[in-house]
Amino acid sequence: MVQVAAKQSQLVRAIRWTDAFWIASGVPALLVFSVGYIAVLDGPVSVVIWLAAVLIGLAMAFVYAEMAGMFPEKSGGPPVFGAQAWKRYARPIAPLNIWGYWFAWSPVLAIGGLLMGSYIQAEWAPGQTWSANWTLTSNFGIHLNFAFVVGAAILIGLYWLNHFGIKESAWTQLVLAVTSLVPLGLMIVVPIFEGKVHLSNLSPFTVPNAHGWHVFALICAGLFVAAWSAYAFETAIVYTAEFRRPQRDTPRAIFASGGLCLFFYGLGPFILYAVVGGKTIQQDPKVALVPLAHDVFGTAGGLLIGLLLVALLLSINTAILGSSRTLYQASKDAWTFRFMQWTSPRGVPLKAMGFDVGFNLLLMMLGNPIYILAASTVGYMIFNTLNLIAGYLLRKDAPAAQRPYRAPVTMIRLGVVLAAVNLVLLFVGAPSWGWKYVGLGWLIVLAGIVIYYYRSWSDRRAPDRAVVGVPTLSQGQEQ
Amino acid sequence: MTEERSPLANPAESAEIDPLGPDVRWANLAPMIAYLVAVGGLLTLATWKNLAWAYILGLLLTVLWIIGFVVDKNRPERWFRW
To answer: Which of A99, A349, B2, B74 is 20–30 Å from A428 (CA)?
Structure first.
């Protein structure tokens, strides 16, 4: 007799920490998204900004690893764990935390898609300059162009690819990672041995065109956007509910991913600036790594761009997998729309993933990737501030709760200090990227609270409708 | 027979056992949340108008927020006196 599973929305425990490591290996490629813009904004100081950002991310990982181990049944990443602490104090903060995190990760799809389109256009289709624009204000509107079409095709293709299941997705990520990170790593290491690193490019070591408190604001602005990339390896613990041995796999996954990012974020921006210099980066910060590829590999630069595209594909896929699971768990915990907890018979949260892709197709129409990134970083900093406090609260409220990984108490206290740092970055750093995009970020994140109240109202009104999805075979889940 | 009841029928409490144990609250965080919102507003003003005094005051208040946790040390509860 075939036994049908009692739960109709269930992820599958099918991966080890190494699989999560490969899924998260798209994070180093996030460097590509903003390294040029931050270099333009902060000049050679950007090199130190990136190093500081990844070190802060590593310090925060101790807190997040402990939190993840406490909730081995939950998917969706750090905000889901943080919500468990906040819900005892102020319930609306829990969805704010989760929605902020989702809005931080989800736009990787839009930004990555647009960047891929831009790289392809710059390298192989310079003639594709057509565009259709509908401007709402002088510099805020809807834009359709070649980059949008390429990006949209990529997102839809990845949605199809990921419907096969988490194990298959991890394999895809492994292939993409090896294909892309090796050349990206070579691009960082080779110039050192070729003697192309010129420290004179870092001189004068100042923030250009700024004085007084404006210097502080620009450094905060650089750290603000760098954090979006350099903290992001925490995505390795999004898959806690899909780990075969969550207690063991969780800390291993996050610290291994953090080590990988320390190399790329600590060294990559320094090599870029020291090899090509600030003036070359300024010419087109969106594709800042193109001149580095040409400088290092000469005529093979085209091939390198191709491999960079694979790296971008990798990071987009990391984001699709992670952010869809955040929505899935948030829905399961009744923090957001009910339909997102539905999983396919293969254990994939397809409706959450579909929502993610649809939202980003709309976001891509805004056009400029860096502004989308700035808006989404508002969500990320809200999340990081609240979640580090949550780590402290969990220690206070549940000191005896089971913790497979227990972070040193110094790191939990340091987490509070870093929450303060993130708070300052949120309010001082964000506005340098444009008030309207900061406003857009806050608007989308605060919408999470409205959606939470809608969900609560909806569940009270029709609790029977909470049953979703299709029955899954328990045997199938064990495969 | 399939059990049709979803854990979400009661959204606040799922079928899972809360690994945190009993509902214990370390402190009343409402004053702290209001304090953070005020600090955020002050720092936003500092950035908007480029006001040196607002930057300094905002940063000092942020440091004071951290001190609120230190004050708690070796006491059973509270952020500052809350």
So the answer is: A99
DSSP characters over A438-463: HHHHHHHHHHHHHHHHHHHHHHHH-G
In a domain, A254, yes or no: yes
As for how many domains chain A has, the answer is 1
Is A8 inside a domain boundary? no
Side chain identity at residue A354, one-letter code: G
Q: Where are the beta strands (DSSP E) in A102-185?
A: 131-137, 140-145
Residue in the structure block whose two tokens are 């972070």: A407
CA A192 to chain B, closest CA, distance in angstroms equals: 39
How much of chain A exceeds pLDDT 70, in percent? 92
**How far is the first Cα of chain B from the last one, in angstroms, to the nearest whole number?**
52
What are residue B73's phi and psi, to 5 degrees?
Answer: -50, 135
Q: Is residue A7 part of a domain?
A: no
Alpha carbons A214 and A147: distance in angstroms, whole number = 34
Q: What is the pLDDT of residue A36?
A: 92
CA A391 to chain centroid: 20
Q: Residue A357: exposed, middle, or buried by beta-carbon count in 10 A (0-12, 13-18, 19+)?
A: buried
> What confidence tier does A3 reach under pLDDT thresholds 50, 70, 90?
very low
Gap between the Cα atoms of A176 and A167, Å rounded: 14
Range of the structural domain that residue A254 is part of:
17-478
- Contact: A428, B43; criterion CB under 8 Å: yes
Q: Does an H or E element contain A79, and which? A: helix A78-86
The residue among A171 and A411 whose pLDDT is bigger is: A411
Mutate to test the interface with B, among A218, A240, A427 (most CBs of B within 10 A): A427
For residues A8 and A10, give the distance between their C-alpha atoms in angstroms, rounded to a whole number.
6
Q: What secondary structure does DSSP assign to A331-387, as a single string?
A: HHTTSS-GGGG---TTS--HHHHHHHHHHHHHHHTT--HHHHHHHHHHHHHHHHHHH
Q: Does the global pTM surpass 0.90?
A: no
Interface of A with B in 339-398 (CB under 8 A): 341, 385, 392-394, 396-398
Let me know: does A376 contact A104? Beta carbons within 8 Å: yes
For residue A243, give the CATH number of its domain: 1.20.1740.10
Q: Is residue A1 part of a domain?
A: no
In the block, residue with structure tokens 């298959």: A168
ipTM metric:
0.81
- Written as one string, the DSSP assignment of A258-300 is HHHHHHHHHHHHHHHHHHHHHHHHHH-GGGTHHHHHHHHHGGG
Helix, strand or coil for residue A132?
A: strand
Distance from C-alpha of A340 to C-alpha of A318, rounded to nearest angstrom: 19
Q: Is A462 on the interface with B (CB under 8 A)?
A: no
